[in-house]
Amino acid sequence: MPKHEKLLQIKNLTLHFRTQKGDVQAVDGVDFELDYNRAVVILGESGCGKSSLAKAILRLLPRNVGKYAGSIIFEGNDVMQLSDEEYRQNVRWVAMSLVPQAAMNALNPVIRVGDQVAEPAVVHLGLSRNEALQPALKMFRHVGVPDDFIDRYPFELSGGMRQRVAIAMALVTSPALIILDEPTSALDVLTQANIFNVLKRIKQELGTSFILITHDIATSSELADDVAVMYAGQIVEVCDAKRFFHEPLHPYSQKLMASVPRLRQEKDPEFITGQPPSLINPPKGCRFAARCSKRFEKCDEEPPVIEQDGRKVKCWLYA
Amino acid sequence: MTDVKTNTAETRMATSSDKKALVSIQGLRVWFELRRFGFGHAGWVRAVDGVSFDLAAGEAIAVVGESGCGKSSLMKTILGLYKPTEGDILFDGTKMSEYDRAKMRWYHSRVGYIQQDPYGALPPFMSIARILEEPLIVAGVKDKAEREQRIMKAMEEVKLTPQEDFLPKFPHMLSGGQQQRVVIARAMIMEPKLLVADEPVSMLDASVRVEILKLLRNLQENHNLSVIYITHDLATVSYFSERIFVMYAGKLVEKAKVQQLLHNALHPYTHALLAATSDPDAENATRFRDVPPGEPPSLVKPPAGCRFHPRCPKAIAGLCDKEDPPEFEPEPGHLVACWLYR
Amino acid sequence: MKAFLNTFREIGRYPSAIAGLVIIGILILVSVYALVTIPYDEAVRLWRGGEDIWYASPKTAPPAWFNFFSRKKQPVTLTLSSARGEAEREVVPGGADATDINLTYTFDYPYDDFPTELTFYFTSTFASKQPFVAIRWVTPDGRELRVADFGINARQTYRAVQDERLKRRLGGLSPEVGLFADPNSPDPENPVPLKGTYQIRIEGVVFEPDSDINAEFVMQGKLAGWAGTDHQRRDLMIPLLWGTPVALAFGLVASLGTGLLTMIIAALGVWYAGWVDELIQRITEINLVLPFLSILIMVGTFYSRSIWVILGVTILLSIFTGGIKSYRAIFMQIKETTYIEAARAYGASDMRIIFLYLIPRIIPVLIPGLISGIPSFVFLEASLAVLGLGDPVLPTWGKIINNAFSNGALYNGQYYWVLEPAALLMITGFAFAMLGFSLDRIFNPRLRGL
């Protein structure tokens, strides 16, 4: 029985990077919530700040951080208030873990995959190496990697198997939340489908929640309960998957949906002209205005977040 | 015996088409030798193992398959980067195996190549002007003015305008879509007859993807190009190609017109691919997808008989695991290498 | 061109790079100055040395600027020549065939110590009758001392220090002491010099109408020149100045030659693979276990010590080392990149790919390495010279140290002899290292912004 109403509440999360050319506002005032045993998809194109959002949530920050603010309330505790060491001990991998981008290529080539999966349990749960192999083996079964693979080295595994190992590594400490950054982007269709089957099964069996960060709209629907669309560092729409994939509200979401090639579809997909704005000096007002076909005078001002039947959209059209 | 059958099916297909074949691939095998300690034979990687098809002038085909199925090797052999172990490629009626150095250079200028990762495909230390000039210099276009004029024209065609803005830039200054346009301009600059596109949009963002696909389709129509489109993503195939070839473990298992394949797939592997491809739909999250068990076989020791049989739900014991299936033609122009249709 | 300018602008952001560049600029200016003012032949002649070139210098004297740092001022070497008009000349026609030629030398002596030598070099022209000279010494307090009287030949040297009669006349004090000593010294056992303006009067008599006398007075002090002198009285300025272009040229050519050849050979090996690669790898492995310095010493001992031969051997031995392996690893990655594949697909030739596609890719890695590699070759050249394998004719920094070492400079407290060339070596090393490390940051994106 969950102790708190929400698993994760993110309020006004901001992450800026300092660069030679100026501050990059990679994550700029992001709000969203996540329930127990649900999956939210953060949809966005490259450079919209979605990977930085994952880093901001897990506090995996590079050295050139300019501004890092907002609140991340995990099971009722504002983890932003914790010191780095407390955060490392109590939150990272214990409460939530990450499957980073291209994780399957990031495995250490000279360590057996079993030991790599057990490693987070050793570091974060204080188990001995032998004790840690038990949860590791359990997670191998959950992600569908045969038991005897535990003694193999990464190069002996196919891409799909390595990706499963990376997921097992995120699971081994039984966190309530797993953040997946583009988990299937480099994989083949069958492997993709397999990995999503694995994730669905984990969600069913372990009750884990997911934040899935991706640019691939079609496969994102494989896991999504909710969808949050990110554009130029901001979340422009949050909606349940059912309504989102049927009729998105924000003009950007609509164009994104229209751009998806479908297997058996008569209508040609469309594309979005223009390019997203630079995150160094984003335009005033709505950041999508320059590419939007429904633009009107109001769009020069910062659009408010409008709630409509439990959906949120940051657009003047719905004000 | 099976080879004879393959050939007859192939001939029938060729004659049924009115167009003259621009490229004809005949019994192509590309095997790589595995060596132990730098010498000593340790087996063969059968990357391409008996592939035949004709490609008419102005026709676009798609080769679909998973990574490691041999589609890259097939493509590189067509590009002239690998030598066939067996079989031959006929281009415009001439055998590629008989080309000398000069003829090979000519052939290279007749074939354009579009790669998957646009950033990696562009030398990072060259300006766009230099990048586009290189194929012209290599092909022996001596006149500087002519080279410039061709560069301008190619950039115009891929809509990299105004050209002057892009010419002095370096690849890293461009967006992914613009980089891919440079790659396409480079492929088009010698006005080739054949375009080989290796997953040209898989690294691009969704919003740009369609734009590039449409650009490629326009180029194909305007220049009457033959296109070989290589991909693992069935969803993008229908915008672009007339026929689809499905490749599995070094062989083409199904050849069909796009609509035939999408609506009436025959080979169990094609079924699996179609079943695994998602359209955006909230229902997806509520059900598990049917995925054949196991993984594609090693190309060093492929299974006997049909190479898909260990994963195939409909495998016929005693047949599929013993004999290599020939190509059958259950409906006109729809070929499938599967015993189910014997 | 624009990229080059950008790099230059980028360099401006690193103070250490600017410092390095400024020092390198100064070293280059010094080289140019040395090459222009002291042509090669002249430098070799001066360095070969001998009494007739360096007679005016003291042996192993520290540089003159030592006086700035010590309260007790040491005498600096002084040369006054009547031929150069540094003496007052008075010609008094005498009787029928005798003419008096009086030369008067005036100089200040503000030092707290005595000089080491006092020498007069006479030159005279005459047909048969020798001229006659008398040397008189006038101290600041007006005493006039008789130094010597003698007839002179066409060339005649008079060393006051060795004149026993003068010593007796000076009450047993050695002339260089006695002539300068203050008669009112508080302690007669330890005389102190009398400061002030001294005068030397040479009263000459010639006995022929066309006969003439000239004299050069050399007071060899305890300090000399800007850099001091060595055991052969040679001014160290010569090897210090000339060592600069030699060191820079050696370092630059060796580093550039090694770097470029290593890169090209590695690229050829990677591109052609097969036996070419095997051969290069095996040569490298063999060369890696060969002792580098020992081979250089053998070449120097048995074949030739010419700097050019040593340079050639150095480059040859440095090509096939670890560098080739690391370049190979980088090239292996680049070879697999898709832009190379694209170039092959449009038919670029092997050479075109190697030189225009493979190699330019690692120039950013190469340049900082080349710059930081220069000092090690400069040091190598110096080390060989220190070991006595320096070029036999060229004056270099290493040779100074070698000479200092073999003449016990450190044992005798002549630190300047060793420290001057060592400091130049160190400054050169610092300059290139500072520039090289900054360039590495600029060119290597992974180190950027740290």
Query: How would you classify the quaternary structure?
Result: heterotrimer
Give me the secondary-structure category of chain A. Answer: alpha/beta
Along the chain, the helix and strand elements of chain A come as EEEHEEHEHHHEHEHEEHHEE
**Alpha-carbon distance between the termini of chain A?**
38 Å
Low-confidence stretches of chain A: none
| Percent range of helical residues of chain A | 25-40%
Q: Level of helix content of chain C?
A: 40-55%
Largest sheet of chain C: 5 strands, antiparallel
Give the strand tally of chain A: 12
Percent in strands of chain C? 15-25%
Main sheet overview of chain A:
8 strands, mixed
Overall form of chain A: globular
| Spatial extent as radius of gyration of chain A | 20 Å
Which strands sit side by side, in order, in the main sheet of chain C? 2-3-8-5-6
What does the overall shape of chain C look like?
A: elongated
Count of individual beta strands of chain C: 9
Distinctive features:
heterotrimer, A: 319 residues, alpha/beta, 4-stranded antiparallel beta sheet, 9 helices, 12 strands, 29% helix, B: 342 residues, 8-stranded mixed beta sheet, 34% helix, globular
Summarize, please.
Chain A has 9 helices and 12 strands.
